[in-house]
């Protein structure tokens, strides 16, 4: 049976600065970014991006807990706390968790008080998607 897959990311969107400025200010390289006005090629119809977007995924290694992944990302924000607080105050920010389960898996999700306080401190919303893939 295939193992469950977990993705954890900090996602920021709708900010006014260019996404590469976030990387220049923090030294963090995003997993993905989009610039307002970019065109995404699609088979049926191209899509024009109408907001700036910056996504930083956790590097999840086998045996790493969900909490450890979240703490790793929050530590990266904490190392540039003033910058991210100012940025997230002016845009949309979220901690995104995606879990793909296989078979009869029933994953549990636990985030400790410290993590929850930091999410609130940074003004991050929490988005959790769980998919059962058979």
Q: How would you sum up this structure, described in words?
A:
The longest helix is centred in the middle third of the chain and has 13 residues, at 66-78. The protein has one domain (5-133). The chain has a 5-stranded mixed beta sheet, covered by helices on one side. Helices cover 29% and strands 31% of the residues. It has 4 helices and 7 strands, in the order βαββββααβαβ. The protein has helices at residues 19-26, 66-78, 81-88, 113-122, and strands spanning 5-13, 32-34, 39-40, 47-48, 53-57, 92-102, 125-133. By secondary structure, the chain is of the alpha+beta class.
Write the layout of secondary structure elements.
Elements: E1 5-13, H1 19-26, E2 32-34, E3 39-40, E4 47-48, E5 53-57, H2 66-78, H3 81-88, E6 92-102, H4 113-122, E7 125-133
Parallel strand pairs: 6-7
Antiparallel strand pairs: 1-5, 1-6, 2-5, 3-4
């Amino acid at each position: 049976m295939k193992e469950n897959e977990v993705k954890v990311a900090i996602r920021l969107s709708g900010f006014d600065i260019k996404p590469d400025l976030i990387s220049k200010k923090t030294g963090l390289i995003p997993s993905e970014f989009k610039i307002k006005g970019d065109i995404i090629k699609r088979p049926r119809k191209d899509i024009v991006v109408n907001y700036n977007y910056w996504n930083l995924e956790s590097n999840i290694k086998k045996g790493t807990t969900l909490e450890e992944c979240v703490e790793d990302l929050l530590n990266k924000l904490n190392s540039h706390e003033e910058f991210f607080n100012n940025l997230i105050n002016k845009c949309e920010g979220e901690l995104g968790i995606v879990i793909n389960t296989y078979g009869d898996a029933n994953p549990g999700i636990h985030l400790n008080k410290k993590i929850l306080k930091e999410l609130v401190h940074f003004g991050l919303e929490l988005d959790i998607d769980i998919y059962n893939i058979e």
